[in-house]
Specification:
The protein has four helices and two strands. It has a two-stranded antiparallel sheet. A hairpin with a 5-residue loop joins strand 1 and strand 2. The longest helix has 19 residues.
């Protein structure tokens, strides 16, 4: 989900599997005011739901902005027959760690 999609989602019911683990965070005053304003604008969404949605959208944008760093090894060819090189940037490591933590959270 992108940040730009949040407002349309907040007008509807959102669903998703939640972890049992809770995270306790302290917000900057400016961010707390932003969340409070959104909570007032979208009263059907709890503050916790708003924070969860904003965090999910932000994480999606971070994932999308991880840089591709072209490696030397060709791993595939695209539909035009051009070579696709391995990514030696942070994305493969991130995805490996994400899968590890996702699997652990599913078993919890």
């Amino acid at each position: 989900m992108k940040v730009s999609e949040l407002i349309s989602v907040w007008d509807k019911t959102a669903a998703g599997e939640l972890t049992e683990e809770r995270f306790n965070v302290r917000l900057r005053i400016e961010d707390a005011a932003r969340i409070a304003a959104l909570a007032e604008m979208f009263p059907r969404r709890s503050i916790e739901e708003l924070i969860t949605d904003v965090l999910a959208a932000g994480l999606s944008e971070i994932e999308a902005s991880l840089p591709y760093v072209r490696g030397a090894t060709v791993v595939a060819t695209d539909e035009q027959g051009d070579p696709v090189y391995e990514d030696i940037g942070p994305t493969p490591r991130y995805l490996e760690l994400w899968q590890k933590h996702f699997a652990a959270l599913q078993q919890a």
